[in-house]
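TODO from last week: model F-box domain-containing protein.
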Amino acid sequence: MEEDEENPSQVYIVADVVEEILVRLPLKSILRFKTVSRQWRSTLESRRFADRRMLVPKKQKILAVGGNQTQSRFQGDAEIETVYLECDEATRPSLTCNGVVCIPEPNWVSVLNPSTGEFLRFCSGPFHYENDMSTEVWWSEFNINSAMGFGKDEVNGKYKVVSMSFEHNSYQILDVDIGQWRKLVPPPYKVVTSTKSACVKGSIYWLEVFRKFKILALDLHTEEFRDVQVLPPLLHSAAARIVNLDDRLAIADICMMKPGWNLEIWIMDAQEETWSMTYCITLAHRVISMHERVIEEWKTMFTPLAVSKEGCLFFYDTKKRLFKYDPETDFLCCLSSDICIISPFVENLVRLHPGCVPKTRPPGWCRNGRSYLNHVPASQIFKRIKLQIPNILLTSTLVSLICFGYSYRYRT
């Protein structure tokens, strides 16, 4: 009581109120506040806080490969922002899930979280190597001999990497938390190894269009394969892409059979029972010329990226062009003609691996297990991230307003 009288201006805020304040702050401020105390650090690095943070409404963002030339061309528009990732591995093809990036390489599998700057590297296994460039075809996304997958187990929140080498009958799964490869039961059929997979609601999906049109799925919790029974109408080309579009499985492909030259995007419902053609975008005379370089344009592949709150669709192609399409007005425009898109970007504060592991790369090459971990500061992972709240002054103002609001509510 005497202590309270000596410090009449001291304010005590319960832990729940502190967390309510912190969850609304900008990403940069949250990362700074980890150094305030052990209690705050524990709160900010907890899975509960990370899950709450992801539910806070934010402007749609996309992740792109960094570079001064690229960054000077496009920063975003009224509906979307661009986050640029700057690291050596960023230029390689990658898989993403909830803002976490997985980059398969011939001898390594790198997993990084651009939001926290955490970077992990694992040995890729004995049968994971780069294909001969002479065998690569125009629709290839990966130049490795394994079909790769990356996603999040929705039950326990763990991130997992899947590698399937049909040539060597080797099927493995890596738990990022543990850092060890384990064997998987072989899938019921082969899928193409040179195209990307997609993770939706705890399952990874691979598209097979060459031997027979099929969709293979793997439940990341039970680690069991299944065949998706209901399929969209037959696709038209090897350029078909399977993606996660707003937490729903989607397939995009070019249709040249109908009048014009159309990009069709089919979306599956949550129960895997029906497909609907949500978008049909005419590209002829708008994106693709019908008279010049027809063969070259035919090899152009388009990938859906995100849907803004206003309902506009963003997609990109293999020529580093970013497009915006308004389905209500049928208006299509090119936002950038020189940008290397990685994926949609989601702020994710989940720690990839909370345990203590070596921070230096051991000599030689190991078959299984964690080989390299480096907690890289966020400024080294991405040097340019455009935020709507530029400085700590507005952050302090926001904290004061929230505190005042809670204080007023409790008094009344």
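Done. The first strand starts at residue 60 and ends at 65.
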